[in-house]
Amino acid sequence: MTAQRRLGIVTLVVMLALAGWSWMLLRDAGQPDRPTGIVDRSPLEKALAVHAQPRAPIPPDPTNRLADQARAVALGERLFFDETFSSSGTVSCATCHDPAHAFTDGERTARGEAAGTRNTPTILGAARRRWFTWDGRADTIWSQAAEPIEQPAEHGFDRTRFAVAIRDDPGLRRLWEAACGPLPRALDAVPAGLSARPALAGEAAHAPPAAAWSQLPVDQRAAIDAVFSSSMKALGAYQRTLDMPLSAFDRWADAVGQGTVSMDDESAGGIITPAARRGWLLFSGKANCIQCHGGREFTDGEFHNLGLPAPDGRLGGDPGRRGAIARLKTDPFSSAGEFSDDPDGAEARLVRSLKDDPETWGQFRTPSLRGVALTAPYMHDGRFASLAEVIAFYDTLEGAIALDHHREAVLQPLGLTAPERHDLEAFLRALSPERLSGSLESAG
Amino acid sequence: MMVDCPQHAQPVAQVEDLRGACSVAFVKTSLGRSLGLPEGTEGMVVLEEERGLLRLVTQAGPGRELSFDPPLRSPCAITADDEALLVVERAPPRIRIVHGGVTRYIGDAVLREPVAVAAHGTKVAVADAALRQVLVFDLAAQANAVVARADGVAPAGVAFDDAGRLWWTDAAAHRVHRWTIDGPGPGQAFGERGAFPDQFTEPTGIACRDGCVYVCDHLNHRIAVLDQATGRMAGWWGMHAVIPRQGKGRIHYPDAIAFTPDGSHALVCEGFEDRVQLLAPGGPAPIDDGLSVPRDAVSSHFGPDASALGPIMAMTEPETGSVMIFNLLGSTPAPGHIATFGGSAALPGRYGAIASVCVLPGERIAVVDRSNARLDVVSASPDRSQPVAFDPFLPRLVRSTDLVAMVGSVGGKVPVIVDLAWDGSELLALDGANRCVWRFDRNGAPVRYTSGEPKRTDLPEGAREPVQLAGSRGELVVADRAGGAIWCCREDGTWSRMAELGHGDATVRLVHPFGVAITDDGVLAVTDESTDGVHLARWGPGSGTTLVSSTVARGILDHEFWLPQGVTAMRDGVLVVDRGNHRFQAFGPDGTWRFTGSLGKFYTRKRTQVRQNELPPVAPPQPPAAPAGDES
Amino acid sequence: MSAAVRASRLLAATVIVLVGMIPACLPQPSDVMWVRKAVTEDGSLTVWWRVAGERDELPDSDPFDLEVLVQSAEGKPAHVLLELDAEMPHHGHGMNVRPVVERTGPGRFIVKGVLLHMSGRWELAFDLGDPDGIQWRRAQCTVEAP
After folding, report:
1. What CA–CA distance (Å, rounded) separates B37 from B93?
2. What is the percent of chain A where pLDDT is above 70?
3. Whole domain around residue C12: which residue ranges?
4. Cβ of C33 under 8 Å from any chain A Cβ?
5. Quick one: pLDDT at residue C18?
6. Phi, psi of B575 (to 5 degrees)
7. What is the pLDDT of residues A197-231, one digit of tens each?
8. What is the four-CA torsion angle of B225, B223, B371, B336, rounded to 10 degrees?
9. Do C119 and C101 reside in the same domain of the chain?
């Protein structure tokens, strides 16, 4: 080997060794501060691509053993529309979740046995949610149903009369036993007409139904709870069948994803209106609505305080999420509770790890925007009658309480022009299915 | 029993120029007699902490100073019933009881830093900040024994209700406690940190009346009204004063509350504003009342502390539990706001009640918090090859030290760190509970003796209320607010007391010194809350001081002050937190004014007037009197 | 040059190259691919972390678990306490959950139930405590939640 060749080999070896060192140094130097999401498309393209994917099916619910059983669905549908389970005999789940109104009631705030304080959310697509009700006091679609049955302003009923009603109605009993198995024998001893349930939040333990509950034998209480929780699971199974259909927007996103229409095509291929397309660009760009209403379901699934004032312009009195977390953590019907079929699963772990943080005061769940044009009025208290009013609020934040000592600062006035507001509304309308399927509209 | 607590109150009147009005009580005729007042005299007695006196305010207006024999010694809180007046004194720490013309004391040798007092029958309750306890004395017991104690983090206010239950506030735990002293257990606690209903931020003074509890929600700038039966907030009075000197129902850092005997008026002390507001409970909601903060935006409300070193300055925002970082190497002389960190939570890097900040070498900031008793060191080193801009991701927590565990490991009391300072080689932490200065390295790790114990320097016996400190080249200086002096510790460990700066004709007497700083070229800067004074003196090891400049000027123009507090050495001079004006001012080493600033605005040319909406005009200041009975 | 000599030189060169590559691999554990890390400000502790599961990817607004390895500057497992939090400093909020940390071995942890509930830039803070809990150091890094 010549000296030149030898030098060449040594040089090569040294260079390779240095390359090894360099690779390590570069890797280490670059890693800590580099955001790990690789951005190789524009943010708008990326946001739209999310909607070009096939929509995932309704996620499984391991906390509900009946979740996907047809007999449970049938039982749940019967229970959903049955007005027996209310103190006046005139209120069912469908009273507020009316199929003719996209499973809402069109009212500012709900009205069951009495007037409520919050707007009725749709249950279409609810099975895709992480949290239920406006404050997230329930974490599964089946457990959500338990509280309204017993709340005086909603069904005003109780679990004991609920279980006894199933026991004493032969048709309903057959339906129930087909779905859930034989009724527990201890239920036989429960007197008909007895109103009994645990004390509600804030209610005295000596209130009549609560006192009656404490006097019931343990085996009868267990039987009632078993029937009640299984019934809720059947209601959950039925509601899992009620998905929000896809919309024109999804078809446009799919066409863009397939490459048959360009995102820059102002006519949007005729699939959605040009205004709706411009509205999407605003939604995902300047207005940054996707900050909270992002993802396939147009929601982050979590909770925020928008600074909405009470009607008198002062700080509202509804603590929202602040009052819900402690209740959820002790709720026997939660995914982590004694009636869950997966008490150590992922959902249960999430419930146990929730921060009960003072800053959650006044936070409410970010709703999905799918079908939003069908579910007026809007916000947790139904204060805005139209989408235009909602957009006007986000545009100016006029009237919002300045939450100075509260750290979250996501919202900023948008400063939209009138045409931009119009475009945004057009986009939101494009998120709603043209019509709900026949089965949904005729349900019940 | 259901009680209708008044959800609102109407502003009736305000009494101004009550310097550092921090406590108030109503004196009825019967007590007036006992205090030697003219027959038939009734009115409120206001404790003017900055003047160290009690002033009688009647319907005719602010009147005479009450005289006592022996004279008051650094009074900081009062309460009264039909027959007796109780005064908390700090020097020495004890409670003076004036009853039937006779004066006696309780709490000697027990209390360390009493801050509030309440009485009911023979029971006297005292909140003690250094002991972190509420103590209950029974005047009927032998030697006025302590009959009960409750532990807290920073007890700040006490009040008995008609049933004899004690309600007390914990400023650093942001809670209100209800305690049946003779009952089982520690009672119940209500509230959490925050600004929403049923939340408090540093609650202080408290009063009970007719089934309701009234809490000075100090950093929410409101009076919270609680139902005694439930502890739930029924409403709140007032709202945040946006700019200093706003009143008429707008409230700014309320300290104490009391009622007239007929309950027709609440008397609200705001030491920050040197005033007492009279509010009439009841009636409709005044405009804006019930909001979290006013819609017309809040001007910067800095905390009392500031610290600068090299290119970085740090200040605090107590309301949000945050630290603001400023860049001093911008294109203008003004500090540029480049990051904010903190926020309330009991986690490293989050704060419930920031006590102090201190900039360390290498663009690091030390933060000490009373709520979680941690010392954090945070790095904030911007890329200086680029123009430095606001970057919320800039601060990085380097190290967090659990001070309770550290001090507990050597058998010390739970530390109450009130101030931090960098002396050029070590971080000094002034501990009011253990009466010492702890030392840390620039990483926030305790400096230890070879034995392994944390290094400490004990404070002198005579120090009454150490509030801030400064260090340089192995020497340290401690401001003793109630003591009206600064203490200097030389390298040999000997302490000396200075009650005045300068000598000969160029002498200035210290009344309530608060901030101290030492510049690299040996200038000692001292602020004085009581005189609105900022003094610079040349100071050398083993020698006296020579006054370089002294400004004693209450006002709102540049080079005038309203409650000057923290002071820090910075490039070419010092920077003073002009807290009562929500701003800071910088001076050259000879005392020349350089600029005035706050968040988002600053001035390098002196103004002869300020904008109408910036700071309201003020009445000409009255010269403060020296604290009564102070030794010097 | 004989084939044997050539082969031995080639072998020697290969060995040298491999020796040169060794530092690139040293600080990493060998059983999984660790590409994400955070280092304390003083460089004394390194946190290697990955999203548990087959793909080391942050999910879209769903809870996930993190596998964590804490090493000293010498590349040895560090005996520390671990807490994890995350924050969006520009929004002024953190996570809505407090993840559960479980020690799985020397310097190894699994952090269960991390939920970055909004898309955008988050700051992950690994707080590393001395065994007596007095001193804590933080290793932090930013991630982009999808």
Report:
1. 27
2. 87
3. 1-29
4. no
5. 56
6. -125, 130
7. 999 988 888 889 999 999 999 999 999 999 999 99
8. 150
9. yes
